[in-house]
Amino acid sequence: MCKDRKPAVRIVCFMCIVTVIAAATNQFCNESVLSVCRSNIGLTRIPKDLSPDIEDLDVSQNDISELQASDLSFLSRLKVLRVSYNRIQQLDLSVFKFNHDLEYLDLSHNQLQRISCYALVSCKHLDLSFNDFDALPICEEFGNLTQLSFLGLSARKLQQLDLLPIAHLHLSYILLELGGYYVKENGRESLQILNTKTLHLVFHPDTLFFVQVNISVNTLGCLQLTNIKLNDKNCDVFIEFLSELTRGPTLLNVTLYHIETTWKCLVSIFQFLWPQPWPKPVEYLNIYNLTIIEDIQKENFTYSKTTLKALTIEHVKNRVFILSQTVLYRVFSEMNIVMLTISDTPFIHMLCPQAPSTFKFLNFTRNVFTDRIFQKCSTLVRLETLIPQKNGLKDLYKVGLMTKDMPSLEILDVSWNSLESDGLEGNCLWVESIVMLDLSSNMLTDSVFSCLPPRVKVLDLHKNRIQSIPKGVMQLESLQELNVAFNSLADLPGCGTFSSLSVLILDHNMVSHPSADFFQSCQKIRSLKAGNNPFQCTCELREFIKNIGQVPRGVVEDWPDSYKCDYPESYKGTPLKDFHPSQLSCNTVLLIVTVGATMLLLAVTMTLLCIYLDSPWYLRMLPWYVRMVFQWTQTRRRARNLPLEELQRPLQFHAFISYSEHDSAWVKNELVPNLEKEDVRICLHERNFVPGRSIVENIVNCIEKSYKSIFVLSPNFVQSEWCHYELYFAHHNLFHAGSDNLILILLEPIQQ
């Protein structure tokens, strides 16, 4: 209802949906220390076991037939009482005389026929609607309700001065339920409502509209009518009724809920509200739950100058199955208004206006539009916002082509369609004025980055099929906000292509090793949301975690709660802020120097011990050690000639896989699932390395405990030092064991 972004529209819309929001809120029954819910449990009386401190009590949807002072007198702090949907037939409002703080009283949907009045001086919300009153239940005491803002009433008949006792009050909302209203044929009644900002009239849902009442309202800003059933015969009755209500100079908003009408009558209602010459200041017309019956024929419509700015139609049922689509769509396409919303309808198309249009805002959410919409349409020259989300759009190229002749277009929302970008080669045509583009919840891939408006500032691509952001994409120098959440990205994108990027949303992707230089590349970033990714807690992640600690607080959103280790298994669930690997285990050079120094120190120590403990004796023992080595070598040589069954010994794994972390997506999504599907036991460093052991020791153990060693070769593999170590130990094991335990997979070509 408030799809436009104008403050004035939002204010008027707020005024008109207060009751809808309140009704929706009342559907929930929440309990707290000061709030108690006893709804829908078969109560016949107010419970006696309630705390005297409660402020909010809900006993709706029960079988309560009466209220007595003793039921409520001990609830001295009560502010909110909901007793709707019960069986109360008569009520003395003095039962609330001990509830001095009572502000909200809902007695709607009961069987009330009579009430005895009492001044509830603190009351702000009093709802007596949907009851069985014959006349409006207004008495002199209501004139003392100076804080009253909302008043809900029911009646079968109306008299002009029924509301005289509250004429001096300035109400925000009056709900008048006339479901049982009856008047003699050709009879006419009148009612002076005086002061209210919003008037909501509810009629019987199954009866043709016949109400003939002159209702006079001062200061009325919003009019709501619910349950309107029309045909060509009673259409004039409704329009006459509407004419009395729309005479006021302050009425800006008219909303019709649940209206069943013929096409001819609907066009007549539009035509009634259109002309400007007579005093109808209505600027916003909203229709929700519209059902069109009988037939749709061409109707004459005069698009004269009008004060109407916006038309909203949502939830349309069309019971006419044979019709001219042109007749239907042409009425809307030629409207000389600023904002048009047609949502949740069976409409399959919308015509291009025949002349330059006044439309600035078009919302066509949840229809059945195709890629044909507005192709070669050059009359939407003032259009600033276009929202065809949740339709049947498929071709991103045609979407761009659609905008080519819309020179004022700034906001385009084509989310929740079936858009694809495969096959595009960067020759997309977009109007350059677009600054906000929503392409979320489609089927777009990496190639979408070669088909984007050049000056877009806010780009939403979440929930697509993007695996990477290509380095050779077009320069989007104006891009400030990028949302690529819920895709399959393996790393944080740099800002070389997006030089103005300040907001990046990247949560729920496949980022395991975010680039350590991200913050150096993206120095303008002021908001990063990258949580809920499968972070692999290895040494490579230390620098990224360190950089997070150096950026201003609040830049990395949801830190640290949404940033947790996913691999290896021993660290799974550990917050990144608590991952602190030792310097020795992460620095290969330092590790080698430390091991070398230790070995040298050990050798020097042993030499000194030998000299100190009689080295000649050790020299004499040297031939014996030589013979032992010779015998071990001979034993290994004889082992090669043993039968196969004697050489086979149970190992823990079938294969150990060595790969670069940059190739992890292919290994985890393709190689490992296909091998494990055949019951092959796989050894992976992220889940099988033993915490506490050095990396070298873990590598040797995994190779020796596996029948085979699989190496996934790629340029990334060649550049990894740890991959070199794994290959070295596997080679050593190959020559040592004399077996063919190496399997090499060339994932990507490697330069000579």
Automatic annotation (TrEMBL):
Keywords: Disulfide bond, Glycoprotein, Immunity, Inflammatory response, Innate immunity, Leucine-rich repeat, Membrane, NAD, Receptor, Repeat, Signal, Transmembrane, Transmembrane helix. Its main location: membrane. Residues 1-23 form the signal peptide. Residues 651-752 form the TIR domain. One of its GO terms (molecular function) is transmembrane signaling receptor activity. It is found in: Membrane. Disulfide bonds join 428-451. It is a single-pass type I membrane protein. GO terms for cellular component: Toll-like receptor 2-Toll-like receptor 6 protein complex. SUPFAM superfamilies: L domain-like, Toll/Interleukin receptor TIR domain. Pfam families: LRR_6 (PF13516), LRR_8 (PF13855), LRRCT (PF01463), TIR (PF01582). The chain crosses the membrane at residues 589-613. GO terms for biological process: cellular response to diacyl bacterial lipopeptide; inflammatory response; innate immune response; toll-like receptor signaling pathway. Belongs to the Toll-like receptor family. This is Toll-like receptor. The lineage of its organism: Eukaryota, Metazoa, Chordata, Craniata, Vertebrata. The gene is TLR6.
